[in-house]
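#struct-help
A.M.: can someone run this one for me? Single chain, 410 residues.
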Amino acid sequence: MPRVLLLIPSATYRAPDFMEAAGKLDVQVVVGSDQRQALEAIVPGRTLAVDMAHPERGAEQIAAFAGRFPLDTIVPVDDGGTLVAALAAERLGLPHNPFPAVQATRDKYRLRQRLAEGGVPSPPYRLVDLDDEPARLAIDLFYPCVLKPLALSGSRGVMRANNADEFVAAFARLRALLAQPDVAAECGPAARQALVEGYIPGEEVALEGLLSDGRLQVLALFDKPDPLVGPFFEETIYVTPSRLPHERQAQIAVTSERAARALGLRDGALHAELRLNEQGAWPVDIAARSIGGLCSRTLTFGTGMSLEELILRHATGAPIPSFDREGGASGVMMIPIPARGVLREVEGIAEAEAVPGIVSVTISIHRGQEVVPLPEGSEYLGFIFAKGQETARVEAALRQAQALLRFAID
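D.P.: on it. Structure tokens below:
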């Protein structure tokens, strides 16, 4: 029976889905978390505290654990575990992505460097120091541009500037965000710098794939029907299958595989965000992990296999009956936060779930919890899931359901 180490950050949404998938397979799961588990002493060899903030230290902990309880594979569940997984798997001689390749996916400046060097379409870009004077920097920049933190994910801190005045305002806002103690601790040295890159016009898509020896198997292509033009880039709706022409979908797949090759990624889950315009497909972001949040619940393969089960089958070398997504269309809406404050009440859930095509509505923020919208925030209010025969109908159901939800925020 293969022993799988699942690296599960405490803040992830995805632990239950991966654990459920593992339960369906003939594998023994070890849960690696950034917090010590209460059952660690009672059930030795089944849990492990891993320092995911410091990959070298985390890899040492995993290697020491594997000396007593041998591991067959390491699977990172979210961004927080990808660096540790790569370094530990390399030390243990297990299948992995090279550490420098994963580093590039976790640093937006390195990402742009590697993509540009690999001949993958890239906008102009520049690394800036957050201790510099923004008015001086603004003089020599290209506009419109997008200011990005190096290490945060989920569009957090990402802002568009159309001119020098907007850049100065966005710079001050990003500097304040990265100076917050919890954010600074998460980012480490990357909290002192930021990336400025040229704004890429066009519609945006998300590709979900699986790499085997550098070859990309496309699992799903999501349309993002809401325009993401700024000043912030809050994602809302993902729907699949894509309505793009087949030749455009093929172009996205080719560009995604080229991007993975330029970075040096070769094994495991791949999540790619790209923009399409007359010049082609342009990678916006590439991650060495699967889709975030609860969005994977929109995907089912073969005769009911979840994305998590498919990933675990690949990681353990188990047969994968089919890579084909189940028929019909599906989608998810990440419910945006309309205002900063304290969430007091959520109404309209039953009405929203009664909309034809809606599968479920999940509110992931507890009542009484502070809510913060982008670009400073890092969470959504929740998720709406829908299925149907056509992508357009799924999108319409998601919009109708959202309109029925009412949030009381003080």
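A.M.: thanks! The domain at 124-198 is CATH 3.30.1490.20 (Dna Ligase; domain 1).
D.P.: also worth noting: The longest helix spans residues 246-263.
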